[in-house]
């Protein structure tokens, strides 16, 4: 369950392999390049020429909804500070990301969050400013539902456990989908369960 923002790189930079880093003493974060096909030196971000920001959000059951959406929106706002000439703190993001071509992507619950971040940005673009242009999203096995009750959603979202919550069931308010600011959408699913829900890992 993850979601990411992808930016085309604004300029051509050399992608040298980065060995695994030690834990950051402040954040505990480690980073490294992952070789997808070692014999061909294929790494995902380098070969697709994108700058990827992966969002770590609070999980249930320790943190109920809307914690995951709040954390993700904070990440969107953080990125927008870099795009709008504000005091963004990540120099590589300011130097190399092309904020005019931003995609959101996620799988399972992460796809639900990516979709909801796109919907929130579409409802009020001013919240992210003019510098960040969302052009598409890719949703892999999205955790979304229909009019049927869902035990997982009901547990994770005690404030609104019904299936008519548009965060879980986008079809509840179909007019919202017509307001999407992006013009490219890719949805990948593996079929449906007997109760009509999108299959989830």
From TrEMBL:
Alpha/beta hydrolase fold-3 domain location: 43-146
Catalytic-site annotation from UniProt: 108
GO molecular function, one term: hydrolase activity
Annotated InterPro entries: AB_hydrolase_3, AB_hydrolase_fold, Carboxylest/Gibb_receptor, Lipase_GDXG_put_SER_AS
PROSITE patterns: LIPASE_GDXG_SER
Family: Belongs to the 'GDXG' lipolytic enzyme family.
Protein name: Alpha/beta hydrolase fold-3 domain-containing protein
Naturally occurring in which organism (per UniProt): Capsicum annuum
Lineage: Eukaryota, Viridiplantae, Streptophyta, Embryophyta, Tracheophyta
